[in-house]
Amino acid sequence: MPLCKWQGISRVLAPPVALLTVKGWLLHSWLKHPMQLLVVGQLHLMALIHGVTASKSKEATLIPAANMAVRSRQEILWTRPHPNFIEDEDRKKKVMERIREACVKYSFFQIENHGIPLELLNRAMDLYKIFFDCSDEDKLLVSPKPGGTVPPAGYLKSPQHSDEKNEHLLILNASSGVSVYPKNPPQFKQVLEEMISHFTKLGVLLESIISECLGLPPNTLAKFNNDRSWDFLIGLHYFPATEAEDNGKSAHEDGNCITFVYQDEVGGLEVKKDGQWIPIAPSKHKLVVNIGDVIQALSNNKFKSATHRVVRPRGKSRYSYAFYYNLQGNKWVEPLPQFTKEIGESAKYKGFFYKEYVQLRARKWTHPPSRPEDLIHLTHYSISN
Ligand SMILES: [Fe+2]
User: Fold this and answer.
1) At what angle do helices 188-213 and 85-105 cross, to 10 degrees?
2) What are the two backbone dihedrals, phi and then psi, of residue 136, each rounded to the nearest 5 degrees?
């Protein structure tokens, strides 16, 4: 019996949103040292497409039967000895094809078995809720310093005139040298530091997968993106919607490399696919992953940065947090030669320093434009051929 029926899965499901189920740490070993698995004798990898039907309502319709079938097979897989190296290579190839497909078609997917303990994910969410429940006076103690980092580290509430109604706390990676942790709740700093450590490892892993999916020479993206000082973790509280409006986060693309999102049970995150807004059903066990503008520019549009937004629910708050696996500001971003001159394609973007792009985009945090069309996007650097 084959260990993994990829063709069967792809026939069953034709999703607008992809779900990847990846056992992270061992996958990493497997990508780097395939022979090692022969010794270990187990394969801890499963990637599948999980259907979420496009719907005009706010409901995301899962396909539970197919999902459960795959899960049970996955459990068997994870205790089954690995038969031989050739089959392993074959499986790796198929897995990478599926991940590549997810990145090309959706740029937005979910992962589980990501290596971050559920307990820690929940703990961080609880502490964010406690923090956002503090008085404005307390929260403003960690306001961004004038002339500080971009984006501003610390606590910010959307300005009155903004059409986005939320507040957030942004914490930079420790290697930035900037620390703006609130004193309350007392355990917050320790938990968030732990979260950043986990997310950083996950970012390295996903970046290596994406690099390989793009067909780049080994470690291309890892060598290019070798400074973690611009990575950040951001906790968000969206205020309940009113009769008049429900915008939590306007439609946008992320400017970074890879984003990981953990949302509470309220939901509200939506991704645009083929002109339709598709709700991403919240899950305690899953992280949402999306590709950012840097990957889109480097890959010359081979992988796209997905448009997404947050819709606020009526009558209750929404909480989420996201880790931005980023790029150091002094890096020069332009389409890689593998996607331009080496294949005879012209570059779709002119080169730019990443910090320049971040600064242009960051104006919306303090000076939101009155017209959405005035927001800066990657198209700012587009070359019309
Ligand atoms: Fe985003």
Assistant:
1) 100
2) -55, -40
pLDDT tens digits for range 234-259: 999 999 998 888 999 989 999 999 99
Residue 379's Cβ-count burial label (10 Å; 0-12, 13-18, 19+) is exposed
pLDDT tens for residues 121-131?
A: 999 999 999 99
Neighbours of 95 (CB within 10 A): 24
Q: How many A from CA of 248 to the centre of ligand 1? A: 11
How far apart (Å, rounded) are the C-alpha atoms in residues 383 and 346? 9
d(C-alpha 329, C-alpha 375), whole Å: 20
H or E element: which one contains 220? helix 220-224
Q: Distance, CA 69 to ligand 1 centroid (Å)?
A: 32
Compute, in angstroms, the gap from residue 185 CA to the centroid of ligand 1.
26
**What pLDDT score does 185 carry?**
93
Q: Are 20 and 286 in contact (CB under 8 A)?
A: no
Helix (H) or strand (E) holding 32: helix 24-32
Distance 351 CA to ligand 1 centre (A): 23
Environment of ion ligand 1 (residues, CB < 5 A):
254
26's CB contacts (< 8 A; 6+ apart) are 37, 40, 42, 44, 45
Residue 18 CA: distances (Å) to CA of 52, 104, 105, 125, 148: 8, 11, 9, 25, 38
Distance from Cα 152 to the centre of ligand 1, integer Å: 16
Ligand 1 centre to CA of 253 (Å) is 6
Longest dimension (CA), the chain: 63
d(Cα 369, Cα 385) in Å, to the nearest integer?
A: 29
Phi (first) and psi of residue 25, to 5 degrees: -65, -40
Q: 91 pLDDT band (50/70/90 cuts)?
A: low
Q: How far is CA 125 from the centre of its chain?
A: 17
SS (H, E, C) 81-140: CCCCHHHHHHHHHHHHHHHHHHHHHCCEEEEECCCCCHHHHHHHHHHHHHHHCCCHHHHH
